[in-house]
Every structure is written in structure tokens, then in C-alpha cells.
Amino acid sequence: MGSVPEAYGRRSAEYIALLGDMSATAEADRRFVGAWARTLPEGRILDVGCGPGHWTNWLHQQGMTVVGIDPTPEFVAHARQRYPEVSFRSGRAENLDVEDAGVAGILAWYSLIHLPPDAVPGVLTECARVIEPGGGLLLGFFTGPEIEAFDHAVTTAHFWPVDTLERMVGDAGFVVTDRDRRVDPGARPHGAIAARRIG
User: Fold this and answer.
1) Nearest to 168 by CA among 105, 126, 106
2) Of 18, 92, 158, 193, which has the fewest beta carbons less than 10 angstroms from its beta carbon?
């Protein structure tokens, strides 16, 4: 079994064709992400696990200063080619390579779903390290009644109870400001958590 970036790399063209455009996103998600972004202090946003870069570009179009980060080389190459006016680089959520309190916010939209559950607290701590006091974190994820692995189309992913992930976010140094849960037709249950970095 290879790594998650390798798994996405093998299916990158398929993923980009099916999901790599804002037309494939839900209007409710665009409203939620946009509302969160407008509450952030002025400064840089990291789109961590940006994939093909469509959310990064969308935030850029909303007037935000944003950098897309992804561990899959094929996604970074595609994003740089399709959105040349936006910044993208290789990187991992576990080690963001950013100075302490160096960003206004982090969007991690379905980018932590493949992590082993015991790795998530460390990633949230890394997010807290680089987000300035008063800055924001936004997570999108598959939700369910318990932490449970399932066979995602690309590689193993996990369902997360909203309450469980909210506690982890709080333990990492954030206060949760908003949350969302819904089930769209033909889709797995969706969860989202918005949080503010405690000063």
C-alpha cells in the first residue's frame, strides 16, 4: 500500500475531471467557507490539502491572499498551470513550514480525512502554531456517529463525529464558532467546523 499522495497521484486526472472545479462544490459549502473567510484578520490564508486548487483560486477571487499547499505533485503542477496568478507549493499538514503565528487562517477542506485518527491532534496543534491569535481554522470532513474507517474511492478515509472533532479542535487551542452537518442526496454525511485561535 502506497502513501496518500501516491494514491491521489495515480488518480489525479480522474479526480480533477470529476471534482477539480467549483462547479462540483455545493452552494451551501461556498456560503459557509466565504462567511468564514470574511471574518478573518487581514493576512495570508493557507488552503491545506488544496488538491487541484479550485478552492484556493476561489478564495483568491474573493480578494483573499491565499497559498495552496498539497503533498501530491500532480495536483500542485495542475494548480500552478490552471491558476498561474495564485501561489501553490508542495507541503504536508503535519509540517506546514510556516513561522509561528504567521497566517490569518487555515482552510482544511476534506484534507484531514485520510489521516490516521491518532495523527489528527498533532496536525491541529501544528495549525494552532501557525495561526495568529484571533485567526481562524475551518475543517470540512465526512461525519458519522463514531470514528470509523471506510473505503474511499482513492484511499482509506474516516468518518468523524462532529462533537469528537470539536473537542480536539478545542484541545489544540481554538474556540469553535460555527459548525455544520447535513446530508446531500447521493453524498456521504458532511460536517464542517469553524474555529478561532485563542490569543
Assistant:
1) 126
2) 18
Contact criterion met (CB below 8 Å) for 130 and 106:
yes
Q: Which amino acid is at 7?
A: A
Q: In a 10 Å sphere around its CB, with 0-12 CB exposed, 13-18 middle and 19+ buried, how is residue 153 labelled? A: exposed
Parallel, antiparallel, or unpaired: how do β-strands 190-197 and 131-142 relate? antiparallel
Q: What residues pair up with 193 in beta bridges, in sequence order?
A: 139, 179
The model's pLDDT over 7-19, given as tens digits with 9 standing for 90+, comes to 656 665 665 667 6
Residue 104 and residue 66 in contact, taking contact as beta carbons nearer than 8 Å: no
CA-based angle 140:86:6, to the nearest 5? Answer: 55
Residue 16 region by backbone torsions, left for phi larger than 0, else alpha for psi between -120 and 50, else beta:
alpha
Residue 96 · residue 126 · CB < 8 Å: yes
Q: What does the radius of gyration of the chain's CA atoms come to, in whole angstroms?
A: 15
Entry pTM: 0.92
